[in-house]
Every structure is written in structure tokens, then in C-alpha cells.
Amino acid sequence: MRRFHFSVSGLSTTFALLLALWEIYFFFFSGSLLQGVGIFTPDRLGFNMAWLAAVYLSYQLISIPFALPAAGHRFAGVVDGMASLFPLAVVLVVLFGRPALLNTQGKWEAALLLAFINMADLFGGYAFNIALSRRIFDIGGAGAAI
Predict the structure, then answer these.
(1) What is the DSSP letter of 70?
(2) Cβ(45)–Cβ(106) below 8 Å
(3) Quick one: pLDDT at residue 1?
(4) What is the dihedral of CA 8, 12, 17, 20, to 10 degrees?
(5) H helices within 6-104, ranges in order?
(6) Which among 63, 72, 94, 115 is least buried, having the fewest CB atoms inside 10 angstroms?
């Protein structure tokens, strides 16, 4: 029987997909579902968004060097990178396609913050991967490691 193994890339992918699902809930259903739950209410929205940003970006960006030794599994790395597009796509659809969902100043601020978080995750992840890769470029005939 095969033992369940959850890798750093798998957890990173899961976090990105969970953030996309949470964004869908927050922007599309936050006024109708779970109204009695005191999470992400207007009076605590900024504080909760700060924690969300800190935890999400910390794991997503700090996990990159730990996922590189398992680079033999290229497919998991590609899926991990592509999963970061889902939360960004949800926020961009809300910002540009459905701005009526942003009916309060708090939701506008949350949407802009989430767009920034998702872009930092996506582009920061690619920048870290490029910086940590051991590719050698031939510049002027001499190999230089980047």
C-alpha cells in the first residue's frame, strides 16, 4: 500500500488553491453565508488581511529553496507555479469584470491588497527560482554562474 506523502510544493499548491477558494467566498458570498462568524468582519478586516498576507507570502516565498532539491519532479514545480495564477485571476476578475461586488471601501482595499499579494507570490516565486537555479550563461566566451 502506498504511503501518503505531502511535499513542500504540494502544500504550496494547496495554499494557493485555498486562497483562491477563500477569495471566491469573500467577494461573491461574504454577505450571505456565515454572517454570524466574526472572521473578516468590517471592523477587523485590515488586521485579518495583514495576517493573511504575512502567513501566505511567508510560506509561499520561504518554501521555494526547500522545494528546489526535489526538482527532479518538474511537474510538481510547474503545477505549483501555475497554482499561483488562480488567486490572482479571481482578484482580477473581481476588480475588472465584477466591480459591483466591491460595494464597500474595505472590499476595495482587500481586493487591491490581495492583488498585490498574488503578484508578489507569482513574480517573487519566479524571481527566486531563477536566482536559485544553477544555470550557467555563456557571456563573452567565459561561463558565469548566476
Answers:
(1) G
(2) yes
(3) 46
(4) 170
(5) 8-24, 45-62, 64-67, 74-83, 85-92
(6) 72
DSSP 132: H
Phi, psi of 83 (to 5 degrees): -65, -25
Triad 133, 114, 30: Cα angle to 5°: 140
In angstroms, the Cα distances linking 29 to 85, 86, 93 are 21, 18, 15
**What pLDDT score does 35 carry?**
54
- Residue 79's closest CA among 146, 26, 125? 125
List pLDDT tens digits, range 84-122.
889 999 999 999 999 888 887 778 888 898 899 989 888
* Amino acid (one-letter) located at 141: G
Query: What DSSP character marks residue 33?
Result: S
Q: What is the pLDDT of residues 29-75, one digit of tens each?
A: 775 555 555 566 656 677 778 888 888 888 887 877 776 655 555 66
Written as nine digits, the cell of 26 is 469573500
Amino acid (one-letter) located at 131: A
User: Do 131 and 64 contact (CB within 8 A), yes or no?
Assistant: no
Domain edges within the chain: 8-145
